[in-house]
Specification:
143 residues, mainly alpha
Length: 143
């Protein structure tokens, strides 16, 4: 019932909010719930009025929130991949995605590396990622 703001920063905030929902951290993924979060954290009544440092603060708080659950989510996906491999051999593409996941995690422990590892492992398991979360994807391969 709330209008969505269409700009790259707002889209990233929304994508992080939806990702938190996918991780089980946010119960209500609605625009209304996101607006309440924006008001509480950024002290603005609507995401449309969040700019500059306010947007940066929103993005960083959402990433920190995600990092409370994301390493465990990646580990759980990895265990699912291992179980899958025990039942049938992985394809060359699946093996490539597992290797990419490992490379990301070896590069660092921050949100981006865990997000990319999560994304790769979801691909191995043939689980689509919501188009609304696509703005979190790297613009180019982060090898």
């Amino acid at each position: 019932d709330r209008p969505q703001v269409i700009n790259p920063d707002a889209s990233k905030v929304r994508a992080l909010w939806l990702f938190l929902h996918a991780l089980g951290e946010v119960r209500d993924p609605s625009e209304k719930a996101l607006a309440a979060y924006v008001k509480r954290i950024a002290k603005v009544d609507d995401l449309r009025w969040a700019h500059g440092r306010v947007i940066d603060t929103l993005i960083e708080t959402l990433k920190k929130w995600a990092m409370r659950r994301l390493p465990a989510a990646v580990a759980a996906l990895r265990n699912e991949v291992i179980a899958l491999h025990r039942t049938s051999p992985l394809t060359a593409r699946q093996i490539e995605l597992v290797q990419q996941s490992d490379q990301y995690l070896n590069r660092g422990q921050g949100f981006d590396m865990h997000w990319w590892a999560w994304e790769c492992l979801m691909g191995v398991l043939d689980r689509p990622i919501s188009a609304d979360m696509a703005v979190l994807k790297p613009k180019e391969a982060a090898q």
